[in-house]
């Protein structure tokens, strides 16, 4: 029996060495290795555990398990370096067999809780790279008998066979990710340039109209007639220069602050209106009165922080803006739990919520849904807006909060009615929300998964889950993509 077992092991190692060149991608290689270990050692699960030195964590890069859901959970688990039997194997550089893990003080039971399984016994061997140990190979729950020295020898031989391939594949993966990041930055640069050229048209039009008025009035009138037009021209010229500086900062990936988009829009609207009134109206005082009325109506006050119940604020804002998206057939689910007070200006909470909710509605097709939830954790109040829409491509996720940037392909960008599906925007609402988070000491984050049927920015969703040709039922749309925004308001703000 032992001879047959060794022959089986030698055959498996030979097969493994021949198969390695067929798996240049790291995940494919590790999936193959995990599957072979599980099959040959006759265990419940086999994993490749790697060390993330940047985050000082250990994680299951790949795992093989009969239950697909358990296998998926295992791949999502991360735990601190320095805890668990894996950390001991990495630090000592020695394999180990543990017959009853719950009697071993090195065992970190929190990993079992996250994976949703019970580990009885375990075998781990170190993965030794060129200069250091990069992780371990792990087998758990022997299905027949116990782990023995033959198993240790076999798993160690696999480790020595594949460790160089794993290390090389890891480097290749990092190079690929760096190339994708550079490609994404280059595309972002092109989008910024195209978007800014679109946004610059209105200020340029104002400058042209104002300069025409100057040419008409300067020779025949006092400064009272030409100075307001000249002042508008100067103000919009400064705006153009500000955009230029911001563009340079984006290219250098430098953080910057901008005025709120509301203020900019009001300035543009005011200047356009005043230019038209002054050009068409004989009454020289009318433009001044119009300007005073606009300034009085839209004046931005200094916001004072106060005690807020975020669940009530979100519910009130949602009810207020409900008519604006009532034409959409998107199902909204509210999960607003009672929460403690936070100390913030209500205007800030409103603008942040509207920004992320509007983004969700505009990227969710009809007959899909959006979930809005508010709950407390003891240390913070959490606001979450999750849509089950088209999702954002990986290369665009890192730049979404930078402003003047839209996630769709430049050729598909257009301005529609707010809350319409695929409505285009100025690209500054989320930037403003990010600036608020830094100014008022709360956190805002986003994660997204792109719908696999429209993987690139140039791919378009039909806009209605009931009309999608890729799925059989509307409910399938909820499983294929979406975006989650999370805002964390700390309780110690007061």
Report on this model:
With 494 residues, the protein is α+β, with helices and mostly antiparallel strands. The chain is built from 14 helices and 13 strands. The chain has helices at 2-19, 26-41, 68-76, 84-92, 110-115, 149-199, 201-217, 223-251, 261-280, 286-298, 310-321, 346-362, 394-397, 429-439, and strands spanning 43-52, 57-65, 78-80, 96-98, 122-128, 133-142, 306-308, 331-336, 342-344, 369-376, 380-387, 443-449, 482-490. Strand 10 and strand 11 (380-387) form a beta hairpin. Helix 2 runs antiparallel to helix 6, helix 9 (261-280) packs antiparallel against helix 10 (286-298) and helix 11 packs across helix 12 (346-362). It starts with a helix and ends with a strand. 31% of the residues are buried.
Q: What is the tally of helical segments?
A: 14
The N- to C-terminal Cα distance equals: 72 Å
Tell me the series of helices and strands, N- to C-terminal.
Answer: HHEEHEHEHEEHHHHHEHEEHEEHHEE
Mean pLDDT, all residues: 79
Strand order of the largest sheet: 3-2-1-6-5-4
The tally of strands reads 13
Share of residues in helices: 40-55%
What is the molecular shape?
A: elongated
What percent of residues are in strands?
15-25%
Oligomer: single chain
- The helix/strand class is alpha+beta
Ranges where pLDDT stays below 50 over 5 or more residues in a row are 248-262, 409-415
């Amino acid at each position: 029996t032992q001879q047959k077992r060794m022959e089986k092991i030698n055959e498996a190692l030979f097969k493994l060495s021949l198969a390695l060149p067929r798996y240049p991608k790291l995940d494919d290689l590790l999936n193959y290795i995990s599957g072979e270990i599980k099959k040959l050692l006759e265990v419940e699960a086999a994993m490749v555990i790697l060390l993330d030195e940047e985050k000082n964590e250990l994680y299951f890069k790949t795992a093989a398990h009969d239950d697909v859901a358990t296998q998926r959970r295992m791949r999502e688990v991360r735990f601190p370096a320095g805890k668990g039997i894996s950390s001991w194997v990495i630090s000592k550089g020695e394999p180990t067999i543990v017959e009853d893990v719950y009697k071993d003080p090195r065992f970190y039971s929190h990993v079992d809780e996250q994976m949703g399984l019970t580990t009885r016994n375990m075998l781990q061997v170190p993965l030794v790279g060129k200069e250091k140990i990069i992780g371990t190979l792990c087998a758990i729950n022997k299905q027949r008998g116990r782990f023995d020295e033959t198993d240790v020898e076999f798993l160690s031989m696999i480790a020595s066979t594949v460790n160089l391939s794993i290390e090389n594949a890891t480097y290749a993966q990092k190079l690929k990710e760096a190339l994708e990041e550079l490609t994404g930055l280059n595309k972002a640069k092109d989008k910024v340039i195209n978007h800014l050229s679109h946004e610059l048209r209105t200020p340029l039009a104002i400058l042209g109209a104002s300069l025409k008025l100057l040419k008409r009035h300067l020779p025949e009138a006092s400064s009272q007639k030409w100075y307001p037009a000249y002042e508008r021209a100067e103000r919009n010229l400064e705006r153009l220069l500000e955009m230029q500086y911001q563009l340079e900062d984006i290219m250098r990936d430098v953080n910057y602050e901008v005025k709120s988009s509301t203020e900019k829009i009001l300035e543009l609207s005011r200047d356009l209106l005043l230019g038209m009134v002054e050009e068409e109206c004989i009454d020289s005082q009318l433009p001044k009165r119009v300007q005073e009325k606009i300034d009085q109506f839209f004046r931005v006050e200094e916001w004072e922080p106060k005690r807020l119940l975020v669940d009530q604020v979100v519910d009130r804002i949602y009810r207020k803006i409900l008519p604006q998206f009532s034409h959409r057939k998107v199902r909204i689910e509210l999960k607003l739990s009672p929460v403690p007070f936070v100390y913030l200006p209500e205007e800030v909470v409103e603008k942040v919520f509207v920004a992320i909710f509007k983004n969700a509605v505009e990227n969710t097709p009809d007959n899909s849904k959006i979930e809005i939830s508010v709950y407390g954790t003891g240390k913070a109040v959490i606001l979450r807006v999750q849509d089950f829409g088209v999702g954002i491509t990986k290369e665009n996720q890192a730049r979404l909060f930078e402003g003047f940037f839209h996630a769709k392909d430049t050729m598909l960008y257009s301005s529609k009615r707010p809350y319409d599906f695929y409505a285009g925007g100025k690209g500054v609402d989320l930037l403003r929300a990010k600036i608020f988070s830094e100014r008022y000491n709360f956190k805002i984050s986003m994660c997204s998964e792109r719908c696999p049927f429209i993987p690139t920015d140039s791919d378009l969703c039909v806009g209605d889950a009931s009309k999608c040709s890729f799925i059989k039922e509307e409910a399938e749309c909820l499983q294929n993509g979406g975006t989650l925004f999370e805002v964390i308001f700390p309780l110690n703000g007061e």
